[in-house]
Each structure stands twice: as structure tokens, then as C-alpha cells.
Amino acid sequence: MNRILISACLVGRPVRWNGKARALGGHWIARWQAEGQLVPACPELLGGLPVPRPPAEIEPGGDAAAVWSGRARILEPNGHDVTREFLAGAAVTLALAEAEGCRFALLTQASPSCGAGLVHDGRFAGARIAGFGVAASLLQARGLLVFPEERVEDLAAALFMAG
Predict the structure, then answer these.
(1) What domain range is 94 assigned to?
(2) What is the pLDDT along the chain (163 residues), one digit of tens a residue?
(3) Sequence-ordered strand ranges (E) for the chain
């Protein structure tokens, strides 16, 4: 069975920064959940951050690679640096994915952790730019196929091809 790491908010867990969920519905999510393929995780909680918590973004001009190399930080609007918690959460998320045998991940967009193609631009104005969050980039670097929440059908096709 192919296991799928999934952002916990996408299966209805109220773990987002604002204490809300972002539950995905649909045939595939229901099927994978019923078959026990989904492994929910919230990197931010696994890194020790509370719910609710202030929003956080990778600072302007930075990206996940820059955060991992220490050249950029993840900040809250007041300037509080939460980089350490985000990196720790990414590492724990990877360990969970490996322990559970996950080869795929379905992650929420725009998050500095889970963003899989889009992240906020670091200015806390709602603008999004192309990029990956620190957990998504780590999972991808370790060989997981990472899909954003909008690409459930693509994930289904990849699972079919993987057998």
C-alpha cells in the first residue's frame, strides 16, 4: 500500500495558525482515508508551535533553501524568529513520513512549512509567490513526490502508476 503524508489541516484537523482546518473533500481523500493510506502531520505543531499562533512567512527574498542554509529566516509579523521551530518540525515530519513508509505527500499551499509550489512573499499582505515551504522542500529532497492540495487528481494518477 502506498502511504501518503498529508497536511493535518487537509483532513479536518484545526491546526492551522488561526486554529482552523482546511479540509479537502472528494472521492480520493475519502477513499485514501478509508483505506488507511493517509498519514496526517502538521510540521508546525511537530516543531513545537501552538494553535492558534501568529502567522509566519519566509522573509522577503528568501526561500526554503535559504532558510535551510541559514541565509533566511521564518518570521512572525512582529519580527519574532520561528525558524528553529519550523526546521525542527520539518525534520520530525520527514522522520514520520519515513517511519510510515510514505512515498507521496499532499500538502497545503502557501505555508512556510507545507507550501508545495506557492508560499507567501514574506510581507504579510497575502501575496503569494512560487516556492516551497521548508517541510515540503525537505520531503522532496528525500525522494517523496510532493503535491499541492489542488493536484489531488495528479496524485491519484501517480499512485496508480506506482502500483
Answers:
(1) 3-162
(2) 899 999 999 999 999 999 999 999 899 999 999 999 999 999 999 999 999 999 999 999 999 999 999 999 999 999 999 999 999 999 999 999 999 999 999 999 999 999 999 999 999 999 999 999 999 999 999 999 999 999 999 999 999 999 8
(3) 3-7, 38-41, 57-58, 74-75, 102-107, 116-120, 128-132, 145-148
- What does pLDDT average to over the chain? 97
Query: Is-contact 132 63, C-beta < 8 A?
Result: yes
In the chain, the N- to C-terminal Cα span, in Å, equals: 8
Question: Among all chains, which residue has been given the C-alpha cell 484537523?
Answer: 13
6: left (phi over 0), alpha (psi -120 to 50) or beta: beta
C-alpha 7/C-alpha 112 separation (Å) is 13
C-alpha to C-alpha distance for 144 and 47, rounded to whole angstroms: 20
The cell numbers describing 110, all together, are: 502557501
Contact by Cβ (8 Å): 119, 137: no
d(CA 90, CA 80): 19
Task: Write the single-letter amino acid at 26.
Answer: G
> Number of folded domains in the chain?
1
Contacts of 65 (CB under 8 A, 6+ apart): 137
